[in-house]
Fold this sequence. Notes:
Layout: E1 2-4, E2 7-9, E3 16-21, E4 25-26, H1 49-54, E5 64-65, H2 68-80, E6 83-88, H3 101-108, E7 111-116, H4 126-129, H5 133-145, E8 157-162, H6 169-185, E9 189-192, H7 200-208, E10 217-220, H8 228-235, E11 240-244, E12 250-252, E13 255-256, H9 260-273, E14 279-282, H10 301-312, H11 317-332
Parallel strand pairs: 3-6, 6-7, 7-8, 8-9, 9-10, 10-11, 11-14
Antiparallel strand pairs: 1-2, 4-5, 12-13
Amino acid sequence: MIETVLGPVPAASLGAVATNEHLLTDSTVLLRPTREGEILHGPIRPEILGDLRWSWLSLPDNLALDDPDDAVAELLLARAAGLGTVVEATSWGMGPRHAELPELSRRSGVTIVAAYGGYIDKTLPEWWRALDESQLETAFRTALQDAVPGTSFRAGLLGLLGTSAEITGAEGRALRAAGRAAAETGTAVSIRLDAAARRGPEVAGILTAQGLAASRVLFCNIDKVLDLAYITEISDTGAVVEFAFGSEHHFADRARDANDDDRIAALCALLAERPEARVTLTCSVWTKGQLTRHGGMGYAHVLRRIVPALERAGIAPQRIHRMLVTEPALLLDRP
C-alpha cells in the first residue's frame, strides 16, 4: 500500500508519478543577489523574466509557492496530461505546509504522497538543527507510523534530505536516523546531493549501513551532474536515480542548469550503459517561475514534452512506463 495525504491506496492506483515536486513551499532562505549584485523586487512579472533567468534566486517572490489556488490549477493541467501522483518533497528548510496538502489533492484529483525530512544545513530552522540523532529518529518514525505533525496522515517516505558538498553534522545525523527509521518501516528515503561534490555512493553507504536496502534510496535531481561514470556508479549501488526536466536557469557565474536536450542524451546514455538501471522522472517544480502561469514548463512537462522526445530518441514505451509508473510504485510501496 502507498501512504497518501488522503490515506492508504493500492500501488496499482498511482498511475504516472512525478517523484520530486513542491506544491506549497518557501525557499526564500536561498535568496541571493543577481550576478550584478542586486536583489529583484515585487511580484514575478514578464518584464523581469530575462533578469530572473539570468539570476534565478534573486527575486523573493520567485522562491515561494504560496497560493493553494494556483497549485490546484497547475495540478489540474498536469492531471489532464495524464499525471496521476506527485511526491510532495518539501522538507524543513523549505517551509513545508503539510496540513494543506489533503485539500489540494481533493480539489485537483491528483494523488499526493508527502515526504518528511530536513533539507540542506544552511536552510534548516534552528530547532531542527538542534535535534540529536535519537530525536531525529523519533521524529521520522512518528511521521511514518503515526502522522506528520499537524496532520492526520502518515508520510509516504522520508525526504527531501539535503547534503552539502561537505556533509555537516546535522545532515549526517539526519541520514543515519532516516536510514534506521526507513529500514524499520520499509520506507524509501529521497536525497538531494550537492552538485559541487561526488558523494552519491558515500551517502548510499551511510544509509545502507543503517540497514536500509539500497533499492529504497532515491537520488533526486541526478541531472545536476551529467557525468555518466558518476551516475552509473550511483546506479550500481542499487539505488534509484531521478532525472528532473524543465529547469534551464542560471544561478551564478559558471553555475547553471543543464538543458533538457543534455538531460535526454544523458538518460539515453545511462539506459544504453545500464539497461536495468532504476530510474524515475520528474519536473522538480520548486519556484514560481516554473509554473505555467508564469511561463514555466509546469508539472506536466515530462508527460507532454519529454516522453514524446524520449520515444523519438528510441526509448521503448515499455521502458518509459517503467520509469513513470513501475519504479515509483515499487519505491513507495510499504508493507
